[in-house]
Amino acid sequence: MTRTSIEIESLTHQNPIPSATRCGPLIESSIIPAFDPGTRIVPDSLDAQIENLFTHMGQMLEAGGATWDDMVKVTFFVNDATASREALNGPWVERFPDPASRPSRHNLEVPGGDKPRISCVFTAYVDR
Fold first, then answer.
1. What is the pTM of this model?
2. CATH topology of domain 3-125
3. Which DSSP category does 79 fall into?
């Protein structure tokens, strides 16, 4: 089984790690910060940060030969679990409209920061 690094235009890491990795049918992301695409700027708005995350995730899926239908789990790292949960629900349902076929999701609270912060990692499984 070969391992392939996945790189995207909207997000690059400063360390020698890829945005995500595909090994066989499995795609695992590295940490995905809420940077505005192509920058290292985190917007003040939690909604804008969430949209950035979904932009980055979508590009990683596409670059790895996957779609939103292949998503298995997303773990969000947040500094306010209640606010983040509510803010995530709209974009989540938009990408995963079928309640009988949604990936697992977990919000892990990581305290700190003076403004809302959110980042994530995901796992996808491509069986084609």
1. 0.95
2. 60s Ribosomal Protein L30; Chain: A; (3.30.1330)
3. S
